[in-house]
User: What shape does this take?
Amino acid sequence: MKTLLTHRLSQSEIKQLCALTQGEHNDNLKEELYQLTLDANRCVATNALWTFTHFAVADNEWLYAKHDQLIDRCLNEKDTTKLRLILSILLRQPFEKETVRTDFIDFCLARFTDVRAPYAIRALCIKLAYEQMKYWSELLNELRQMLDLISNEPLSPGLRSAWRQVIKKIKA
Assistant: This one.
């Protein structure tokens, strides 16, 4: 598997990797792929993460057990591509009221208000902040205030879309 991940992957190769690891009987291959997300070779690690972003819903559930580990990786990740991919994976996971982590909420709030952060990371952090804060009205009010602050700056179309989506959910 590692050999395949050492070069730029096509969409058909991604689908091939997803097919190879699908189903509960292939959880050992999912674990192997997950360990490759930690590989020292950046290309291997990013390709492995990219593959996880294409997992079917049923296979994506396997990653739920890695939820806290993925959050820990976000908090420490310096590579923006890896960070974007990990945030994308986390956005496909449920955030339960009992297990929400304040350090990750703070991370998301800091990142989406950071004008130097890439737009994709900011957009993902807006959505992830909402997914974590939606359980408490006082936190939603805080999120709304922070969203109001960034609405005055020029936003990319993707960032503006994420902003609108979350504002709509807050108002609902």
Notes: The mean pLDDT is 95. The longest helix spans residues 119-133. The two ends are 45 Å apart (CA to CA). The chain is about 65% helix and 0% strand.
